[in-house]
Design a protein that fits this description.
By secondary structure, the chain is mainly alpha-helical. It contains seven helices and two strands. Strands 1-2 form a two-stranded antiparallel sheet.
């Protein structure tokens, strides 16, 4: 079975949340609260996405994490590559030297696997955050939602 990692899946959720208000900067805690993702995973994920240029970070009172590009310019492939590395079905298709396979020089299936790998990469490049976020109803009002979440938590604690 071909799967993306849990962290890449979390990345799709986090970026979808953030792209609903793409000019805003979010704290890691806000992203975790707004998505239900574990805070330690969100912290690690946001740092990976900044390192790859998908997100930008800003310090200070109005700081946090923001989208590095417009949502229609960030593809699922950008996210998967930032989190999991190159999109490839097998080590020999990654493009890095020193693959673990000793059959590369006479492998007959490398060409067909390359076609499949390329097709997957192209498909992921064609899906942007706009495509994913477009499935959410309406524009998110994060401040109202967080106030609501906080009130729900206070009521739950009583």
């Amino acid at each position: 079975m071909i799967r993306i990692s849990r962290m890449a899946d979390y990345g799709v959720v986090a970026l979808s949340f953030m792209s609903r208000d793409p000019k805003r900067f979010y704290s890691a805690a806000t992203v975790a609260d707004g998505t239900g993702l574990p805070l330690p995973s969100v912290c690690k994920l946001l740092k990976l996405l900044v390192k790859s240029g998908v997100l930008i970070s800003r310090r200070g009172v109005s700081g946090g994490y923001g989208l590095g590009r417009a949502p229609n310019k960030i593809s699922v492939a950008d996210l998967v590559t930032a989190v999991d590395g190159p999109i490839a079905l097998a080590d020999c298709l990654e493009g890095s030297s020193g693959s673990a396979c000793g059959l590369e020089s006479f492998c007959v299936i490398r060409g067909p696997w390359q076609k499949v790998s390329d097709a997957i990469r192209v498909a992921l490049e064609e899906v942007t955050l706009v495509d994913i976020t477009g499935s959410f109803p309406g524009k998110l009002n994060v401040s109202q939602e967080l106030v609501s979440l906080s009130a729900d938590r206070r009521n739950h604690l009583r």
